[in-house]
Structures are given as C-alpha cells and as structure tokens.
Amino acid sequence: MHHPNNSNKKRNRRRRSDSHGSASSAFSASSLSEGEGHSCPGSPPPHSKGNQHPDKNNANNANNKCRRSGGRKRRQRSRKRGKGQQTLPEESKFLALDCEMVGIGENGHTSSIARVTVVDWDGNALFDEYIQQDEPVTDYRTFVSGITPQDLEDATLSLEECRNMVLQLLQNHILVGHALKNDLKALDISHPWWLTRDTAKFEPFMKVRFDDGILWPRKLKELVSEKLHQEIQIEGKPHSPYEDALAALDLYRSVRPK
C-alpha cells in the first residue's frame, strides 16, 4: 500500500528541482545577454582577457617588465658594440674638389667656372680640365685664378660635359673641399650632405669675428698655415685648384680619427 506522505514528499522534491532549474536558466540567459561573467558565490572568477585572476595578472606584468628590461639591455649592448666596432670609410672613398672662376658680363662681376680639378686621397689628379666659355670673358682674374686667355682658347670641354664627368666621379664618394657651396653652385650640381666634408664649415676651424658669438669661416690659406705649417696661395702667384683641393684634403686628414 502506497503511503500518502511519501507521494507528497516526492511531489515537493520535484517542485523544488523544477524551481531551481528555472532560476538557473534565467541567470545564465541574463549573464550572456549582459556580457558579464557571473558565477556562483565562492567560486573563482572566470579567466577571461577582461577579468583575469590576480595571480595571473601579476605574473603577466612581471613577464612584461622582464621583456622590456631585456630589450633595453640588448639595445644598450648593441649600441656599445656599434661604438667600439665603428669603422672609418675607406680612403679610396674620398675625393677633393676645387674650381677656379673667371668674370663675364659687365665689369666681370658674374663668375663663370673656368677650371675644375678633382684629386683622390693620394693626391692624384683624376680630373683637371679647362672649361669652354659660352660668353665672352671680361675679367680673367689671372692674379687669383691663374687662368689666361690662351688656356680658354684651347678649351674644348663644355660645362655640361664637365658636369656629367664630375657627377660620375663623385657618385658614392665623400667630397672634401673648402667652401664647397661656391664650387657646387658654379657647377650647378649637388652632393649629399652626409657625404660632404667642408673644411670651411668645420667648427674647430672657424672663428668668432665679433662679440655676437657667431662662428665665421676662415680662409684656406690661414688654416693651412696655422694647422699644417705650410704655405699656399703665395702672394704674387696665381691660385692652383690642384693645390687648394689637396690642401683641403690635408686639413681634413689632420683631424680625421685615426
């Protein structure tokens, strides 16, 4: 015989079970719709990217710090090695340039390039040519340039041809000279600044003229006399572009790291 109390107990257990299941389903649906990682009280929070366990967060932070510190140390070691192992450019990469001008136009005030000289590290003249003039020369400036009418009468090389030949020589080379801006402007060419060594712009070779503290370039003749104890551009004698180019190269050599 079935006891009525047992039936009532079973029905009560089923009601509690159904009620518990409905509540659980509603909680889960609410959690997903809100995007929150709810869990039962007392259980650890889920290890999602947005809500990691504190111990795991601490470990990640420590690892990140170690990686950053290690990266800095490697970069510092790399820089130190770079400084210690820095090599100078090969001597064959250096060329020195100098140009001489004559005057054209009214009173010869406009400069026109008349002679171009390029020398290598060993002092060999790789290029030394007189340039054919497109306009009449009104001032040969012989006392400075050394150029005579006869020199230019025999000249057959045009400025365009000269420019192309010089550009070929200077390609991938380090250019040395004094006040190179004037020579490059006359040739109507440019050269990368990082491949240029201008002794007129080297600060230890410059001087302050006035009380404003501004540095000014010095004459090549003065620098060669003071730094190299040599004499160039002797008064009464015309300038030699070969001599000037070699003097600028010697000045650069005197301060170049050994």
Low-pLDDT stretches are 14-51
C-alpha-based Rg, rounded: 42 Å
Helix count from the secondary structure assignment: 8
Question: DSSP strand (E) fraction?
Answer: 15-25%
Could you describe the largest sheet, including whether it forms a barrel?
Answer: 6 strands, mixed
Mean pLDDT: 79
| Category from helices, strands and their pairing | alpha/beta
Helical content band: 40-55%
N- to C-terminal distance: 115 Å
Helix/strand order, N-terminal first? HHEEEEHHHEHEEEHH
- Count of beta strands: 8
| Spatial shape | globular
List the helices and strands and how they pair.
Blueprint (H helix, E strand, L loop, with lengths): L3 H31 L19 H31 L9 E11 L5 E11 L4 E6 L6 E3 L2 H4 L3 H5 L5 H12 L3 E4 L2 H8 L8 E3 L8 E2 L6 E2 L3 H9 L12 H15 L3
Parallel strand pairs: 1-5, 5-6
Antiparallel strand pairs: 1-2, 1-4, 2-3, 7-8
Helix pairs in contact: 7-8
